[in-house]
Amino acid sequence: MVARVAPILRGLLAQPTDDDDHPHRLVILKSHIGAEALSIENSGGAPLRLAAFQGNETDEEMRKRLAAALASYKAEHDANPEIISLPDVAVFRVINPEPAPGRELQLTGRVAVVTGAAGAIGYGICRGLLKYGCNVAITDLAGERLDQFVAEFQASDAARTFGVPMDVTDPASVAQAFARIVEHWGGVDIVVLNAGIALACSLIKMDLEAFRRLERVNVEGTLLVLAEAGRQFARQNLGGDIVLISTKNVFAPGAGFGAYSATKAAAHQLARIASLEFAPLRVRVNMVAPDAVFSGGSHKSGLWAEVGPGRMKARGLDEQGLEEYYRTRNLLKAKVTAEHVANAVLFFALRQTPTTGACIPVDGGLPDATPR
Hints:
- By secondary structure, the chain is an alpha/beta fold.
- The chain is built from eleven helices and 15 strands.
């Protein structure tokens, strides 16, 4: 019930602005249960006490009831409530984040979900979002890798980071992860689809089950996260942003990289379809296509851990030599970093142009990857 009520409440509590690109000033909605909820409810002020829901109401029925309750409270108190109590469910505390002084572009009050975060590109994206004031849900497969990754971020940004296990191939896991994030912060505003796996193998030698493993993560995982994000955005009714981490292989596939190229192309196409279907929800869907990102901070790329040894052997290079090879093959002779990928994600998340259905290449310039 919290996962349904919280985003509707958060949408109703958002304050409209006169900025078409950033039409709302958002709140964070923290939910509390048990003894903690009782303490919050009695902490002072005049809480809004809601009537219980039956559980069979539609989202629109909930929205109408909640809107009427908020309007009645505001008419009596000339302000929105700071505490909202829903009997036998939770007590919600409304937090109005203050924008950072002196920063024109920022994501204060927004909540981002990053899938497949515990790696090189995920590291850069999470750092970039936090830099601009965003709250970041760090998701990946459950385990020590995710735990250590989250601990590294929480050491400096405990209040604005939240680690959540998510298996993008499992519909229940995806739904549960989004529900936990909504319960923690009240909603979702930005979804970065970064989860993906690679395989280096020729078509002739390709094992069908190995191909299907990539298809489950790269294609089905993209579909499941897009669908759940769309449901959350519809419930919240505030618009939003989705950014898919695509790849230059969509435009310039490589021999021996057929499974990755094909499944990422399918994911890219799903994002393009989402840009059409989610536009009525005021949700923008865009793509970022990097090439050859080997590390981010102290985190190595999982993709290059998979395909790097074969590439090094084929070219007679060590790890440093392979990185230099990919740097010198692009037009700008640029080393592509996780921070560069994050900057492209931030271009969309910060809404610097009214854009949807677009792709930013982050590859130093590769003529073969130019769409044609």
